[in-house]
Amino acid sequence: MKQVRICVILICVFLQAAVFVMAQNIHYSLPKKPAEELKEDFRLLQKILEANHPSLYWYTPKDSMDLFFEQAINSITDSLNEVQFKNKVSWVVSKIRCGHTSVRFSNAYTRNAKHVRYPVFPLYLKAWDDSLIVVSNLNPKQSVLKRGTIITGINGRTNRELLDTFFQFISSDGYAFNYKNVAVSTNFPAWYKTVLGLDSSYRISYIDSTGKEAVTTIKNFSPSFDTSKKERPPLLTPLVKPTRRQLRKAGLLEKRDMTIDTALNTAFIKLSTFSGGGLRSFFKESFRKIRENNIQHLVIDLRENGGGKVTSSILLTQYLADHSFKVGDSVVAISRKFKYSRYIRGSWDYWFAMNFTSHKDADGKIHFHRYETKMFQPRKKDHFNGQVILLEGGLSFSATTMFIATLKGQKNITVLGEESGGGYYGNSAMYLPTIVLPHSKLRISLPMYRLVMDPNRPKGHGIIPDIEIPPSSIAIKKGVDLKMQRIRELIQQKAL
Predict the structure, then answer these.
(1) Predicted TM-score (pTM) of this structure
(2) What domains appear along the chain, each with residue ranges and CATH number?
């Protein structure tokens, strides 16, 4: 059986390698690093992950991960630029199936990214299942491919082939692929350019206005810049510089906001993070207003919430939960030591925190006991007991998933939208130092704890909503928020 398993692994590696090698055929006028230096970076990364990552083999067994590292290292036969090397590292890291273990460009590359931003593939596309729908076209003269147009293929590749190719370079929790769909949708031109490179033109297959498949050709997009030194004419209306208070208020509104619809007797809270934004005071004020206005329905929009502070997630849960709860069944690290601390940014701070907050148990592992044992109680003051709709999507991640998962199944809670990006069973996070590889300077986030929220839940996917509402090409074309539309209908029909 072991020999059969090894053969299957080798076959899978070979098949994936075909796409992996294809994705390296990219040319950018970027500086390159010698092959041996990049191999050293790869070997170091493997050692750091083996020493500290709590879930390196949670989804992918060790022999498979070793093969993936070996293949990637052996594929480096010549010098590579940063984009090419990042693709190789991302391909291997994605095999861990940990959404918190992500690969980012170096700080230097990020600061100077403008020189490689253009030209780009011109279409922003929304991805889900096997669908690609035009959201916007950077070339307005290409009037055929308008918002809402259904794409069926690009340069001979089907939608599924394109997405499967991109997905191999994106880290996600287990098999919660909706996060990968949203990641690609957020910046399709960048993913196309980074993974597949650029062609001079593209044959786009699409569904025309008569419902038939058609083909058109488009070119890359490059903005035209005015390089002359002529003085620009003054604006008719001079811009007024916003005050610090106005800027701060705008920043807070991006993180959290609440509106009350008195006609629907509903409060709508949009929460895009569990970090910053003065959330403690915001929650306190919001739930006080909800009580004073005798609001019976509460909608919390978490579609853009990638997580943040666990303490903020717990606090919001306390305003809604009808039962005591704890963060997780187990919160475990494999080590508090940072053997390769010189390559891990802020390692001293994380070492100190882990020695202060966690303890080594009889099983030889480091346990964060507070989150394993402490039972948090619902708040009494301004606790909301009405009907609650939690709106989730592919970007709902980490602490957000913990919040939704704790409340899912409660009698007055309805989860609506699309599968969350964060795992329903658990994830690896809590503390997230950053690895900086010495030669390439790529940055890789390193989670220190494995969190199992509930061992009785199915492992491998995100939270499946009680009411699932997928995207729609018609809704995209009309600019309609299907999820919010459905929520209003449910409240009006008293169907909750």
Answers:
(1) 0.88
(2) 2-97 (no CATH), 119-219 (2.30.42.10), 248-492 (3.90.226.10)
